[in-house]
Amino acid sequence: MVKDSVGYPVNRARISVALSGFTVPLLSRIYHAFDGDVVQAIVLGEIAHRNVEAWLANRTNVEDPLYDQAQHQASMRPCNSLSIADASGIPRETVRRKVVTLIERGAIYRDAQGYLYITPNVGDNYEDMTAELVENLLKTARSLEALLANRPVPIGPLRLD
Description:
By secondary structure, this protein is mainly alpha-helical. It is built from seven helices and two strands; from the N terminus they run ααααααββα. The protein has one domain (2-148): Winged helix-like DNA-binding domain superfamily/Winged helix DNA-binding domain (Arc Repressor Mutant, subunit A, Orthogonal Bundle). The chain has helices at 12-33, 38-57, 64-67, 69-72, 81-88, 92-104, 127-148; strands at residues 108-110, 116-118. It has a two-stranded antiparallel sheet with strand order 1-2. A hairpin with a 5-residue loop joins β1 (108-110) and β2. The longest helix has 22 residues, at 12-33.
């Protein structure tokens, strides 16, 4: 458990600063990517996660069908506004409004049965942001591991760029 590590009690503030060095820029990027509508980002994330988690959990499945319009729906688990509301804790009517906006943005679509799916190219809009976030997350994880082991870590200024 993290709280039992040698560095946790003596580095709690440094741990908080290291975490905020990742989370604050992350939240800022999400805020700007979704024109200030963070709830829209949560709804898209829930839909995407529910659609692809089962497919990607099987390590033998390749990702190609997720990007091919002809195969992509068959490899995804469908969801609806109610399941997204239940999973996220966001009111169903709010989810429904966000779904309309996400459909208009071309990020998701609704099939003939009313199920929601991400579009095959939805990730293209976020590929650079995802790669940068992974790099920042790994850097933050290394800092946290060092702090929990009570090794010195340079703490720099918060960057929002």
